[in-house]
Amino acid sequence: MRRPSWLQHPTPVDAVAGLIALTALAGVVWSPKLTNAVARATGSIQPVQISVDVRNLPMADPEGFLQSIRDEGRLSFVIRNQPAGSVRVLSAQNISPKLVSVMPDGSVIQADNPSAAALLYARFDLEADAEKGESGVVIGGTKLKIGVPVELEGNMYRVNGVVSGVAQS
């Protein structure tokens, strides 16, 4: 049986077309969505709880701000200026420091600090899907450890904070 002439003598155009087809196939196999789906199916991506502390945030209505974050339910998460996707808000609480005084009878009383009334100290408990590696938790291709600066962004705000806790769910 005789072969077609284009199989007997491939041209450079045929070689380039074959190379393009192989590159497209490799792009489909190694795409981030497919890699993420494979990682999720194999169990290497797990939910992780993250605590982020925000300090000295000037705020006119701290409780209204925290309630709006709770109502939103999700926010954008940026680690070291690299977008890391969206995370779920588990809680947002005011952790502003209190003034503590020991009375002459030995009792201890606490009061709100009037000088820090306009500044908000808040803790956000968040949940994200992350890869657990040998060196820790990886979210959005970036390692996440306690002390790492992060940025939280919602509809009406963008605040900087620091990771204060990381735990697997």
* Number of discrete helical segments: 4
Order of helices and strands: HHHEHEEEEEEEEE
Global mean pLDDT: 83
Straight-line distance between termini: 65 Å
The percent range for strand residues is over 45%
Major sheet: arrangement of strands: 1-6-3-2-9-10
Total number of β-strand segments?
A: 10
**Helix percentage:** 25-40%
Describe the 3D structure:
The mean pLDDT is 83. The longest helix has 18 residues, at 12-29. Strand 6 (119-133) and strand 7 form a beta hairpin. The strands form two sheets. The chain has a six-stranded antiparallel β-barrel with strand order 1-6-3-2-9-10. Strands 4-5 form a two-stranded antiparallel sheet. The chain has four helices and ten strands, in the order H-H-H-E-H-E-E-E-E-E-E-E-E-E. The chain has 169 residues and is α+β, with helices and mostly antiparallel strands. The protein has helices at 5-8, 12-29, 32-42, 62-72; strands at residues 45-58, 74-79, 82-94, 98-102, 108-112, 119-133, 136-139, 142-144, 149-153, 158-168. The chain is elongated.
